[in-house]
Design brief:
Blueprint: H1 3-13, E1 30-36, H2 43-58, E2 67-73, H3 78-90, E3 95-99, H4 102-109, E4 115-118, E5 139-142, H5 151-160, E6 166-170, H6 176-192, E7 195-199, H7 204-214, E8 220-224, H8 228-232, H9 234-243, E9 248-250, H10 253-257, E10 262-266, H11 270-283, E11 299-304, H12 305-310, H13 317-322, E12 325-327
Parallel strand pairs: 1-2, 1-3, 3-4, 4-5, 6-7, 6-8, 8-9, 9-10, 11-12
Antiparallel strand pairs: 10-11
Length: 328
């Protein structure tokens, strides 16, 4: 079956797939709950889910034959997250997969069902695991970066736009990692001659008001941190940066693919392929507590020259030479 057809089938029927298929197969049917932190129709969500399914298939797990997948989508508020997490736990999965901020809700619902996470920054600081090497408890997974990495976004902003003396940092204050990322950026700001100001992302109106109020001079810039709200509102943030001709640095490639200027961070899709290996090992009897949290194997620099031209910015040759991808 082609991947596109398989994902379409998952999206339409996975939640209600009849488990009577067990009687038609010689293998034991296992159940996996998946809680994505972006909307069902988000292209990034579809790419991540496709990578997960592909990884599972390569390891011998196939929907309807020996695996049943229940999916929930996290494009909502904290109450919605908790409700959907409770639904997944009630289905009694053998293992659950958390994407980003959905891990908080899943851990609130269970400390016994194994959980494998993807794209969760600072899992130790967030209290999700005891340590990277020995997670302990029922949770392990794949982290995108350590908090100190966030400082590199301000360094990159200063490199592509040397005249920048003020930077607004868009971060989710409710998401503890958002506050930590701002702290790491703020720590290096004096040495770079930049004054940084936090911008909240509780809703679209707050983002627009704050960016409009901030963007007053040609020496202003923007940094967008990683988090569920910045991902959800990325189209608005990118549009505001373009409207006010703000050089902006983003945490992931998919922001730049959507029209952002430049990003530096890990691949956000590959962790879901890697998650499949941990799901496979847990289904075969290993415990999350014994599987170390893994970091990315590569960080990528992506530049959108079309966006640079639109805001009147000449990207330095040194940056272009280092870029893993240049969108023209």
């Amino acid at each position: 079956m082609r991947r596109r057809d398989f994902i379409t089938l998952l999206g339409g029927t996975a939640a209600a797939w009849p488990l009577a298929a067990r009687a038609q197969q010689g293998e034991r049917m296992r159940r996996v709950g998946v809680f994505m932190n972006l909307a069902k129709d988000d292209l990034e969500s579809k790419s991540r889910l496709a990578a997960l399914v592909e990884g599972l298939q390569q390891l011998g797990w196939s929907e309807g034959r020996n695996l049943h997948i229940d999916i929930r989508w996290g494009s909502g508020d904290a109450d919605s997250f908790r409700r959907q997490a409770a639904e997944l736990v009630t289905l009694a999965p053998d293992v659950m997969i958390a994407s980003g901020a959905t891990l908080v809700a899943l851990q609130q619902m269970t400390r016994t069902v194994p959980i494998v996470f993807a794209n969760v920054a600072d899992p130790v600081g967030g209290g999700f695991v005891e340590s990277l090497a020995q997670p302990g408890g029922n949770t392990t997974g794949f982290t995108p970066f350590e908090i100190g990495f966030s400082a590199k976004w301000l360094e990159l902003l200063k490199e592509i736009a040397p005249r920048v003396s003020r930077a607004a940092v868009i971060r989710d204050a409710v998401y503890t990692v958002g506050t930590a990322q701002f702290g790491a950026i703020q720590a290096v700001a004096p040495s770079l001659g930049v004054v940084v100001s936090p911008v909240g992302v509780r809703d679209a109106h707050e983002i627009e008001r704050a960016v409009v109020a901030f963007a007053r001079s040609p020496n202003d810039g923007l940094i967008v941190t990683a988090g569920p709200s910045t991902a959800t509102h990325r189209a608005l943030i990118i549009a505001l940066a373009a409207r006010h001709r703000l050089p902006a640095v983003y945490p992931y490639r998919y922001f730049v693919a959507a029209g952002g200027l430049i990003s530096y961070g890990p691949d956000t899709v590959d962790p879901f392929r890697r998650v499949a290996s941990y799901v496979d090992r847990i289904l075969k009897g290993e415990k999350p507590a014994d599987l170390p949290v893994q970091a990315p194997t590569k960080y990528e620099l992506v530049v959108n020259l079309k966006t640079a031209k639109a805001i009147g910015l000449d990207v330095p040759a040194s940056v272009l030479a280092r870029a893993d991808e240049v969108i023209e």
